[in-house]
Amino acid sequence: MFEMELSVRFSETDGAGHVGNTVMVVWFEEARGPLFKVFAPTMDIENWPLILASYRVDFRAQIFYGPGVTIKTWVKRIGNSSFETYQEAWQSGKCCASGTTTMVYFDYKAQKTGPIPDAIKEALAAHLLPAEGEANSSQSEQKNN
């Protein structure tokens, strides 16, 4: 698992004083940075090997300006040419959002997918979500309420 601490910027809030729903997609992408470095250690855009296939965000509670936010990132599934992440956003001891993203190993020059190299699969496996991971998050959230 990777963790990233973020400060909520005033510009990320809306008229109701909470973080806008589109901000979560940006935060989750930022927090996937360490996984991107598994594929492209230098983060060279000219040789970028990933393409976003899908994402989903579930909102559980509002996030407000002020307290910091922790984004937790796991690898949920590793396939032949794709992998899936599971992420959570925590503020003040509460899981406020969760999401999944599917990324595909992609050759932009050939415009086709390819198999994820075994060494990369091995590196991803070090960050696999435990089978009960999602249930643990819900239990932690209930304990903090």
Automatic annotation (TrEMBL):
It comes from the Bacteria. InterPro entries: 4-hydroxybenzoyl-CoA_TE, HotDog_dom_sf. Keywords: Hydrolase. The keyword Hydrolase applies. Belongs to the 4-hydroxybenzoyl-CoA thioesterase family. This is Thioesterase family protein.
